[in-house]
Amino acid sequence: MLKNRKFTRVAIFLLILLIVAISSGFRYYQLYEWKVNHPSYFVKDTVSLTTLDGYYWIRLARAYDNLTDKKIPDIYRGYPDHPYTFKLETHNLLVYLINKTSKLTGNYYYAGVYLVIILSSVFIIPLFLYLYSCGFTSTAIVTTILTTFSYSYLYRTYVGRVDTDCLNLFFPFMMSYLIYLIPKLEGYRRYIASIALGITAYLFMWWYQYPGFLIAYLGVFVLYLIIKRVKFWAMLTSIILFILFANPKYFMSGIDNIIYFVFGSKYFAGEALNVNKIAWPNIAEFISETQKQSWQTILLYAAGDKYLGLAGLIGLGLLILRLRFDILPLLPILLLGLISFKSGNRFTMYLSPFIFAGLGYLIYFSSEYLVDNGLKVFKEHIKIFSESISTIISIVLMVVVIYFFSGVHYKPTPSVPLNIQQTMIDIKDRFGSVPVVWTWWDFGYAYQDLANFSTVHDGGIQGKERTYFVGLSFSLPDQMKMRNIISYFDHKGFKMLENGDVDPKKIINEATNFTLPVKNGNILVAVSYDMVYKYDGIDFFARWDFDKKKSDYDDYEKLNCNYNGSILRCNDVDVDITQGVWGDEQLSNVYIIDESGIVKHYDFNVDGRIIQIVLKNNQVFISYILDDSVFQSNFNQLYFFGKYDDKIFEKVYDNFPIMRIFRVK
Predict the structure, then answer these.
(1) Which of 86, 101, 140, 599 could form a disulfide with 128 if both were Cys (CB 3.0 to 4.6 A apart)?
(2) Residue 159 in contact with residue 34, Cβ under 8 Å?
């Protein structure tokens, strides 16, 4: 039988170091490629981020040194309720590390980027040690290498993805490894490991404030100690040390965290979210990572191929049978990974290690059988070859999987397009101390960090009542009602919707007919080209039926058009601009628009859809076809045509087709 080779501690250390170096080296090479292609990834000397949340962490890291009062309101979030609702949450390990690393790099953005490059690979250490300690060296190698290059994990730890994902495998696997280790230790070593478990848990909560994790690990820890027949007083001492060093307050709030995760979060909630018994539309409908996917798609994300994923799950089943109770410390992570089949691809990064562990075990198991039964001649005469067969097969299959099924070929792009980033930087400090921007939520954190704007909603408070009324204001065909909605919440705030008995239809009527001018003369409506392809979400919220709890929404349909001044061709079909016929479809209007306004307008005096084409430097920038309801919307008129009511709006910035900004009077 092919046995797992025993290595010296130095050999194991060097092997782990090699795998970590390969993982971090690849991520650093991504940054090198960005520097080589500087104009595509940098705004001047500022590196772009590949996650919108990164701008939030960078802003907090920048504020960290000057923060003396931990309860200071965050004036950039949740306007106008921030004075008593949102605080500067700088008590976060990622914020702390970015702040301190920036002292070395001289740049907060580079500090975040370099941290991700380094920290994304450290999960390899506890995961490798766990599998090696269980007797599966080749499986440990396969699992750690394939996980770090898997699409599900690389996507969340690519260059520029400054977010907590880069340590969200390390802390759980380290806790699992320590739980696995503690029953095997004796005397003071067991208690030192229990203290280390508590400190790891504390750091995890400082990093990622979801104490529900600790409830799960506490349950697993207690059960594992019982199964391993640890003496009562030793077990009790270990448990107490774990709780004390993890900070007991986290365990007290952990149960509520689990209840919210299951029943109130975007990962499990249905189409509607209730706030004060009102079924508001759920933003999860338009966040791809929280949308439920088929099992084939989940395995594609987790393993790169559904058949590879199935093989890994089969191998995982065999590995669990082999490990028996030693799988228990890994159970919280495994369950989180399996949640992917219910809640979407957000948690596939927790599933990938187990699929690849199963795959690695299949390779080991198959090689073991092959050597013991199919290569007896080689085993007797060429012993070295027979003992190396598992390693050779593992290396060959790893190369194949990494090349064909991993995320190494994926090229991340900036989350905020460079021209919009540049616009945000250009308008910083142009409109007063802290202007308020009324726009869609996606770029909220970027507006706060790059433009110094306060926002109504952002990536942390999107959805429900705030996003509903922002969407409604853009979808309505009446700019006065848009101004009324903005002024209504400027006066009353959104928090009042969470208190008392609220009738949403009554609030909508009050808001759309509110006549008082805005209190804050520095509220800006921003419309940018990215909102065109987000319009389905905008209209989904705006057309929400509170009784039926669903939405029948409209959208732009993207076209691929060419225009040379006389001939218009869209999706490889010519448009007859004399009759308004496009293939089999009769059009009502065609608009050709550039930064100066309408270049050409063809009105065919019939009912039909409308084509809108935007030119930039005499080239087609964007082109869409839409129906009349979208055409008449406030967003369409403000963005595409710059058409506004000067009694209620003042145009204060215009670099169309990138962005237009209007001040609310």
Answers:
(1) 140
(2) yes
Say what the pTM is. 0.90
Q: pLDDT digits over 406-431, tens only? A: 888 888 899 999 999 999 999 998 99
Which tokens sit at 356? 């690849």
Which pLDDT tens digit goes with each residue over 385-408?
444 566 677 778 888 888 888 888
Chain centroid to CA 616: how far? 31
Q: Is the dihedral of CA 301, 306, 307, 313 positive or negative?
A: positive
| 170-172-175 Cα angle (round to 5) | 105
**423: left (phi > 0), else alpha (psi -120 to 50), else beta?**
alpha
Q: Tokens 């390990």 appear where?
A: 93
Helix-then-strand count for the chain, H and E:
29, 20
**Buried b vs exposed e over 280-301: b needs ≥16 C-beta within 10 Å?**
bbbbbbbbebbeebeeebbbbb
Q: What is the pLDDT of residue 555?
A: 95
- Rounded CA gap, 535 and 441, in Å? 12
Q: Output the six-digit token pair for 632.
A: 């008449």
- Distance from C-alpha of 652 to C-alpha of 318, rounded to nearest angstrom: 65
Residues whose CB falls within 8 Å of the CB of residue 505, separated by 6 or more in sequence, listed in order: 546
Amino acid at 520: N
Looking at this protein, which amino acid is placed at residue 285?
E
Residue labelled with tokens 């490990």:
323
Residues 114, 160: Cα–Cα separation, whole Å: 9
Cα distances (angstroms) measured from residue 643 to each of 115, 141, 662:
45, 61, 11
Q: At residue 615, what are phi and psi to the nearest 5 degrees?
A: -105, 145
> What are the helix (H) ranges across 150-247?
151-157, 170-181, 188-207, 212-227, 232-246
Cis? peptide before 657, omega within 30° of 0: yes
Q: Where are the domains of the chain?
A: 561-664
The answer to whether 2 and 389 have CB atoms below 8 angstroms apart is yes
> Are 548 and 281 contacting, i.e. CB atoms less than 8 angstroms apart?
no
**DSSP three-state, residue 411:** coil
Residues 136/184, Cβ–Cβ less than 8 Å: no
Is 52's pLDDT higher than 60?
A: yes
Query: Which of 275, 280, 281, 364 is closest to 316 using CA atoms?
Result: 364
Tokens of residue 347, six digits? 């948690």
Buried b / exposed e over 431-469, threshold 16 CB at 10 Å, is beeebbbbbbbbbbbbbbbbbbbbbbbbbebbbbbbbbb
